[in-house]
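ok so I'm stuck.
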Amino acid sequence: MIENEISYIIRGCIFKVHNSVGPGLLESAYELALCYELEKSGLTVECQLGLPFIYEGVKLDLGYRVDMMISNRVIIEVKSVENLKDVHFKQLLTYLKLSDKKLGILVNFNTSDISTSIKRVVNNL
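replied:
not stuck anymore, here's the structure
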């Protein structure tokens, strides 16, 4: 599956979770529910995946954690905040660059309209 096909499934799962529980929970609750829905949909899901950080050619173990890696192609960053900020987009873009992935999904579950809170972030896609 290519990134756009995976993204379509991810979006459907995000809507299902949000429609089931609504806004107001902690990120960790949404993350667990979304991992469950994505796995049910047949995708390979790694939650809280620790990735090495290579700095000046030196591999530093467990440099950072991504919320979710889907089918080793798409990174999902889950938020439950009042508003997404520019730094959230930059964080995901940095994760994409460091892991050499092309597509990330930034989602803020703390909203009454989830359709406006799912953002695609691309890295040379």
